[in-house]
Amino acid sequence: RYKVIFDTDPGVDDAMALRFLTRRPEFDLLAITTVHGNLDVDTVTRNALWLADWMGLAAPVARGAATPLDRPAGTGAPHVHGANGIGGLTLPQRMARAPDPRPAWQVIVDLVRAYPGEITLIAVGPLTNLALALRHDPAIAGLLAGVSIMGGAFGTRGHAGNMTPVAEANILADPEAADAVLTAAWPVTLLGLDVTQQVVMDAAYLDRLGARGGTDGAFLRAVSRFYQDFHERSRGLAGIFAHDSLAVINVMAPGLFTRRHGPVRVVCGGVADGQTIQKPRGALCPPSPAWDPYPSQSVAVDVDTAAVLALY
Ligand code: BDR
Ligand code: CA
Which keywords belong to this entry (predicted)? Predict the structure, then answer.
């Protein structure tokens, strides 16, 4: 089984990814760590606690970074995920469980040290917690089985950014952290908009989940309504992008993705703030200190959409 830590800012598609992950026998979820992003960190931590409770999970929930590494906190995306970040679902006033006393980065470091070589980090929010973990204990980079990240936009299929013409939301929320994470010597796969926007769960698919999926299906249908309205309003899309679930599926079914290899950097500032760029292996560029010191990472550029939808 894959030992995983789920780093998240729930978030509708985060919640959908977590439900998938925790129903699959392939995964052993060791912790949920939260991070600012879709909403402020207190709100997304509350959501994670509720999700963990509702799903009956044993894994601890640890509160993570409230702000990006070097910038003030953003305003989040209530227009995408609802004012409560979880599609307007009604949550109880008081949470049944409390967060782990340690900050998220500490939980990541502790678990990676406890299970060297065994853990895969699944990161589906801004990358601040991962960057802080590396900052506190750089040697953990050599102790991970893998890092599967929903983030970035490489334009390989004509998909540009979803926040600016070139930047994707998770990366733009903390570009300095993202650059630190993507240039570290751990094996990263990036599931960016190039693939996540190919996987559309349309209204009929969501209705089928709702009708046939029992309690889980009813939850997935209810949590995704507001998100679906956003996609319809903003893009005329009669459905939702599966985004965060792809970072989970990549771990258990890596063969469903086509990859490109080479170092990845993140633009920090200026008109292209938050843009992710890969120097593909074999690219005809002169040697450059901006690229050559950094390890090759894997960027998903194509996906077997039908297989992903069937699996989910
Ligand atoms: C990413 O941004 C968030 O709004 C989603 O949860 C997903 O992680 C997509 O760009
Ligand atoms: Ca997310």
Answer: Glycosidase, Hydrolase
- Burial label for 73, CB within 10 Å (0-12, 13-18, 19+), is middle
Please state, in angstroms and rounded to a whole number, the distance separating the CA atoms of residues 171 and 161.
10
| Candidate from 9, 127, 276 with most ligand 1 atoms within 8 A of CB, to mutate | 9
The tens digit of pLDDT for each residue in 182-236 reads: 999 999 999 999 999 999 999 999 999 999 999 999 999 999 999 998 989 988 8
ipTM: 0.98
Is the CB of 80 within 6 Å of ligand 1? Answer: yes
Sequence-ordered alpha helix ranges (H) in the chain: 12-23, 41-54, 78-81, 104-114, 128-136, 169-172, 175-182, 193-196, 203-212, 214-223, 225-235, 245-252, 305-311
User: Catalytic residue positions?
Assistant: 9, 243
The model's pLDDT over 110-154, given as tens digits with 9 standing for 90+, comes to 999 999 999 999 999 999 999 999 999 999 999 999 999 999 999
Ligand 1 near 16 CB (within 6 A): no
CA distances, 167 to each of 12, 109, 192 (Å):
20, 29, 10
